[in-house]
Amino acid sequence: MILTVTLNAALDITYRVPRLHPHTTHRVTEVTERPGGKGLNVARVLAALGHRTVATGFAGGGTGDALRALLAQETLVTDALVPVGGATRRTVAVVDGATGDTTQLNEPGPTVSPAEWAAFLTTYRELLGEARAVALCGSLPPGVPVDVYARLVRAARTAGVPVLLDTSGEPLRRGLAARPDLAKPNADELAALTGSTEPLRAARDARRRGAHAVAASLGPDGMLAVTADGAWQAVPPRRFAGNPTGAGDSAVAGLLSGLVEDLPWPDRLRRAVALSAATVRSPTAGDFDPTTYKDLLPQVTVTERPRGT
């Protein structure tokens, strides 16, 4: 089983409008709702790839109830979310039908009490006993200490479970010091962490901070990985227009499934980049188009890069 952790889960709402004009009223042509937050998106893609997946984190209030009801309908992901008193956040994506551009609005999430955090830790440690790998994903809700990902990384390592960290800012910095097996920042997060806008140099720097491997999402330029075995960059065959929401989460699913299947690094990157591009082409945020994925997989180019030190 693969475990995903979403401490700040969300009910993802996508509105489609013919064209987005600021400061005006819009008639919405389509509305979709689905369980969201980075770890839940990762879990959904992992399940679609054929991996048994369990999702934990927090859910509460009427929004949390709606999220769990939708998650139950998907059937492929096991719900191990921990209840909280506050309401799960909503994220709203407004898709401009004329351009394909997306405007995203993200709520902060519920405040988590010390008792609720303790309940989560108990659940997390129990689930680690069955897990082949774990993904720690996304932002932190109010009330959760900034070093929690470092704690969760250490718990996974103590249990002998490979751990992937996908977050940003101070939680990322502290989490790296706990030595995750893999960190997956995007280019902006990597630059904010290291002060370098050159991806290869920044990825090397991030790895020196503690991660065994760093895989950086570079948007239309694909993905760069710096590992103990070497460094590679995977690039899609062309740029894709569409909704990028969830593309990084699909990349995480590609990397994590490749880890569990013991694929060579170039194949993990090829899968991650193809899944990411197929998510951009999906009509629904946080999902991927299977046909696009299968077509793209053999077209992704992987080039070896100097690993450095």
Q: What's the tally of helices?
A: 10
User: What is the spatial order of strands in the main beta sheet?
Assistant: 5-4-1-8-9-10
Span from first to last CA? Answer: 34 Å
Task: Calculate the mean pLDDT score and round it.
Answer: 91
Strand content: 25-35%
Account of the 3D structure:
By secondary structure, the chain is α/β, with parallel strands linked by helices. The protein has helices at 38-48, 61-74, 114-128, 148-158, 169-177, 187-194, 199-208, 247-260, 265-280, 290-296, and strands spanning 2-6, 10-17, 30-36, 53-60, 77-84, 89-96, 102-106, 133-137, 163-166, 182-183, 214-217, 223-226, 231-235, 301-305. The strands form 3 sheets. A 6-stranded parallel β-sheet has the order 5-4-1-8-9-10, with helices on both faces. The chain has 10 helices and 14 strands. The protein starts with a strand and ends with a strand. The radius of gyration is 18 Å and the shape is globular.
